Amino acid sequence: MEDVSRETMATKTKKLGDLGEKIAEKYLKNKGYKILEKNFRYKNYGEIDIIAQKNKRKLLIFLKPKHLTFVEVKTRKISGNSSYRPEDNITYFKKKQLIKLSKIYLSQNKKFLNIPYQIDVIAIEILQEIIESAHNQRIELRHIEQAITDFK
Fold first, then answer.
1. Which of 9, 45, 116, 135 could be joined to 67 by an S-S link, Cβ 3.0–4.6 Å?
2. CA separation (Å) from 139 to 23, 48, 129, 135?
3. What is the pLDDT of residue 138?
4. What is the C-alpha separation between 147 and 101, in angstroms, rounded?
């Protein structure tokens, strides 16, 4: 019986994470980012949720690559008056994992080697009822740029 409830909890957590990633992707596109890849995985090192690139205008016609952004999306349901935030789930281990994965991605995609990069966090809080229904959406989104800066 416990295994069934764990499966249900894992399914709910995955749905919540997928919804958060969709919200983050839409937000980034609206901010002028081009989504290059989603859910980048390498062996057992984990996953980078979104890899995006923002361009800046050089003259009127040409776009010059500005930087590459690796995005970790953290989503949670709002329940009561908790001071706990989604970004509080970014542990020391997760930071090291994201740094390692970003370096692996860059080594596999040499065209980005000379472009500056950063690791951002998008924290999303969703009113619990939204998960079952898209009505009356109440979402709080925080884009924390350069959230992880220790690349040594």
1. 116
2. 9, 22, 11, 12
3. 80
4. 15
Mean pLDDT of 127-140: 62
> What's the token pair of residue 110?
């040499």
Q: Which parts of the chain are beta strand (E)? A: 33-41, 47-58, 62-78, 117-127, 139-148
Q: Give the tens place of pLDDT for each residue, 96-132.
A: 999 999 999 999 998 888 888 999 999 999 876 545 5
Q: Which CATH code, of 3.30.70.1060, 3.40.120.10, 4.10.910.10, 3.40.1350.10, is assigned to 2-148? A: 3.40.1350.10
Q: Do 48 and 101 contact (CB within 8 A), yes or no?
A: yes
